[in-house]
């Protein structure tokens, strides 16, 4: 029997659609795997009642198939599904690490990224690695067809999760099919600024690079109270605010001494908009670990 833990993540970070991702301090999913002749899945924890336990419908089932590693899997959800915090990716990442160890497959964490990404296809229809990469590797990651670049960073982060849900499929459907040259140039410049900020662990640069004229405005329309939350966080000292992944979670970066104020302002703004919310104060986290 092997148990692994994988952290929540925030993808896109505004300007890095389907490319950027960052591991969070918390929350996290835990997966325990035990060898079996036939794969079975048990789910407990946050939103467990909404997660299918049939292997062909669960992200970890695809990981089992990719590793040829049948097992009884117990998923303890610390990350609510449809949150924008990489819930499905964390389960897939933790399962990949646990099964790799259980069956002594010998894959490195980097080699497990495409394996765990197969689980994402079950949920969103595409094997995206922008969430599974930081969940497995930790830090700030840049995903390309050629592989993953990981950067260690120490940047304060606040994530505010409202009590509403946005499906990944709906969020992808809201993204425009094209963009203007001006928007393209602006997005590239912002993405470069954010990457430089992560390399320097500079929350001012990271925040400045979160601006995005295309994807974020489209997805923000799906999140009740987003504009108020954005403005409240900025007024409280956030250097940048954006939609976390597909939403509805909202991600902010700020100076270390402003985390509490930013978190409180975001929660209050959601509540003023008629939506309950909770906030996580932390920073860039580590990747999946064996327990």
UniProtKB/TrEMBL annotation:
Pfam families: GHMP_kinases_C, GHMP_kinases_N. Pathway: Amino-acid biosynthesis; L-threonine biosynthesis; L-threonine from L-aspartate: step 4/5. One of its GO terms (molecular function) is ATP binding. The keyword Transferase applies. One of its GO terms (cellular component) is cytoplasm. Keywords: Amino-acid biosynthesis, ATP-binding, Cytoplasm, Kinase, Nucleotide-binding, Threonine biosynthesis, Transferase. GO terms for biological process: threonine biosynthetic process. It is an enzyme of class 2 (transferase). Its EC number is 2.7.1.39. It catalyses: L-homoserine + ATP = O-phospho-L-homoserine + ADP + H(+). ATP binds at residues 80-90. InterPro entries: GHMP_kinase_C_dom, GHMP_kinase_C_sf, GHMP_kinase_N_dom, Homoserine_kinase, Ribosomal_Su5_D2-typ_SF, Ribsml_uS5_D2-typ_fold_subgr. Residues 197-270 form the GHMP kinase C-terminal domain. It comes from the Archaea. Residues 60-139 form the GHMP kinase N-terminal domain. It is found in: Cytoplasm. Gene3D superfamilies: 3.30.230.10, GHMP kinase, C-terminal domain (3.30.70.890). Catalyzes the ATP-dependent phosphorylation of L-homoserine to L-homoserine phosphate. Belongs to the GHMP kinase family. Homoserine kinase subfamily. This is Homoserine kinase. It comes from Candidatus Halobonum tyrrellensis G22. The lineage of its organism: Archaea, Methanobacteriati, Methanobacteriota, Stenosarchaea group, Halobacteria. The gene is thrB.
């Amino acid at each position: 029997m092997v148990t692994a833990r994988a952290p929540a993540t925030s993808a896109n970070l505004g300007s890095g659609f389907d490319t950027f991702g960052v591991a969070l301090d918390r929350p996290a999913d835990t997966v325990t795997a035990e060898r079996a002749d036939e794969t079975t899945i048990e789910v407990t924890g946050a939103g467990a009642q909404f997660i299918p336990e049939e292997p062909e419908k669960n992200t970890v089932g695809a990981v089992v198939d990719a590793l040829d590693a049948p097992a009884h899997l117990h998923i303890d959800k610390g990350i609510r599904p449809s949150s924008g915090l990489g819930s499905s990716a964390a389960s897939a990442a933790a399962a990949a690490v646990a099964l790799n160890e259980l069956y002594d497959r010998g894959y490195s964490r980097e080699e497990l990224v495409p394996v765990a990404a197969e689980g994402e296809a079950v949920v969103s229809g595409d094997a995206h690695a922008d969430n599974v990469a930081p969940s497995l590797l930790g830090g700030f990651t840049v995903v390309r067809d050629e592989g993953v670049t990981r950067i260690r960073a120490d940047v304060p982060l606040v994530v505010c999760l409202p009590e509403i849900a946005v499906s990944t499929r709906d969020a992808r459907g809201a993204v425009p099919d094209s963009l203007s040259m001006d928007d393209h140039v602006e997005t590239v410049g912002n993405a470069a600024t954010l990457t430089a900020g992560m390399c320097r662990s500079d929350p001012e640069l990271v925040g400045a690079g979160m601006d995005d004229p295309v994807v974020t405005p489209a997805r923000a329309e799906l999140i009740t109270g987003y504009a108020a939350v954005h403005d409240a966080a900025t007024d409280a000292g956030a250097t940048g605010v954006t939609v976390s992944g597909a939403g509805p979670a909202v991600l902010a970066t700020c100076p270390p001494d402003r985390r509490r104020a930013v978190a409180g302002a975001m929660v209050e703004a959601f509540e003023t908009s008629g939506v309950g919310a909770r906030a996580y104060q932390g920073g860039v986290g580590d990747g999946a670990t064996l327990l």
